[in-house]
Every structure is written in C-alpha cells, then in structure tokens.
Design goal:
By secondary structure, the protein is of the alpha/beta class. The protein has a single domain (2-198), classed as Alpha/Beta hydrolase fold, catalytic domain (Rossmann fold). Helices cover 30% and strands 25% of the residues. It has helices spanning 42-53, 64-67, 76-91, 106-113, 115-118, 141-144, 185-198, and strands at residues 2-8, 15-21, 27-32, 56-62, 99-104, 122-126, 150-155, 169-174. Strands 1-2-4-3-5-6-7-8 form an 8-stranded mixed sheet, with helices on both faces. Strand 6 (122-126), helix 6 (141-144) and strand 7 form a beta-alpha-beta unit. Helix 1 (42-53) packs across helix 7 (185-198). The longest helix is centred in the middle third of the chain and has 16 residues, at 76-91.
Length: 204
C-alpha cells in the first residue's frame, strides 16, 4: 500500500493531506477533522483502517488553521475554500475514482457544503453537529440535504443533537456514544464501510 504525505497550497495557507492507496482502489474517501481536533481521531482512524482493507483509497485532510497550530477554527468560507483546493490537488491519478467526501463534526459540515463543488458522489458524516449544544433552534439540517447518498453516524449522548434520516440520508445512532464516538469507533467504521460497499464504493 502506498502512503503519501502532502502539503497543499490553498487560498488560506498550506493544508496537509495523508493519502493511503491500496492496490487497485475502487474509490477515494476524503475525510476532514473536527473543529478543534485532528485527523488522528479514533473514528477517522477506524474508518481508514477498515476502508483500506476493502479497497478504498483514503485521504485525511488537515485544514490550514490546524497546520498553523491554531485550535480556533477558521470561518466557514475559508474552510470550504481550503477543502475544495485540497480535493482538486488530490485527485490527480485518482481522478477516475468516485469521490466520497466526509469527515467528523466540522469536517462533515465542510464536506456537505462543498459536495457539488468537488464532484462528490456520496457523503460520510461522523458525529454531524446538528445544532450547537442547547440550541436546537439553530439547526444545520439543511447542510445534509445535498441530494447525494449520505451516511450519518452519531451517538445517542451527543449534545450537538442527531439528524433525522431522509430520502438520501441514512442515520445510524449508536447507544452510549458521545460526540467523540471514541467508544464506538470500530462499530462506526463498520457502518460506514458497509454502506460504501452497498453502493459499490468498497469491496464486500
């Protein structure tokens, strides 16, 4: 398996990407991190391991503000523009593969907002933050309504809420899990990769 670490120029500074490519990949899954976290979050690593074993190339993308050492996230417009730039740079020799965009928390929101711009065919949302804690009236449900096949995995103890399923949106709620999904990372990965396989984007 080939593993490549890249620095990618974006309009808001350099982003970083780790791209792992198994032999004869069937798709490319791009994953972004949470607002204050990184690409080594337990759920992202679990998805990466299982996806690679089933023929999916996986890119884990670190936003420029995190590369620069800041924890406070950049504005949404900057996050989206940086992500779009990284997706364009990563496709390269993998341009023929279907792109599934995703991530955890803030990274999932970015993937949803930019899905059309980057040419994604599907979306993976881990711990999608439906609303700020204690503020259900500030719903972000519209961000999930992209018209693309989408799988959402949230915990039943997530203070950011849980999205509702829709025509194109599969929602799995895992018992005993909080926003980190740390305790259920393996199960979350199984749900995601089985969903990918059901769409032909991972090997059975």
């Amino acid at each position: 398996m080939a593993s490549v670490q890249r620095t990618v120029a974006t309009p808001f500074g350099p982003a970083a990407a780790v791209l792992d490519v198994p032999p004869d990949p069937v798709s490319l899954l791009a994953l972004g991190h949470g607002a204050g976290g990184g690409v080594d979050a337990a759920d992202l690593l679990a998805v990466r391991r299982l996806a690679l074993a089933r023929g999916v190339a996986v890119a884990r993308v670190t936003q420029p503000y995190r590369v620069a050492g800041r924890r406070a996230p950049a504005p949404a417009g900057q996050l989206d523009a940086a992500w779009t730039a990284v997706m364009a740079a990563l496709r390269g020799d993998l341009a023929a593969l279907p792109l599934i965009a995703g991530g955890r928390s803030s990274g999932a929101r970015v993937a949803c907002r930019t899905a059309a711009a980057v040419g994604a065919v599907g979306l993976v949302a881990l711990a999608f933050p439906l609303h700020p804690p204690g503020r259900p009236e500030r719903s972000r449900a519209d961000e999930l309504r992209t018209g693309l096949p989408t799988v959402v995995v949230n915990g039943d103890r997530d203070p950011f809420g849980r999205p509702e399923p829709g025509d194109d949106i599969v929602v799995e709620v895992l018992a005993g899990a909080d926003h980190s999904l740390r305790k259920v990372a393996g199960r979350a990965a199984e749900i995601v990769v089985d969903w990918l396989a059901g769409r032909g984007w991972a090997r059975d």
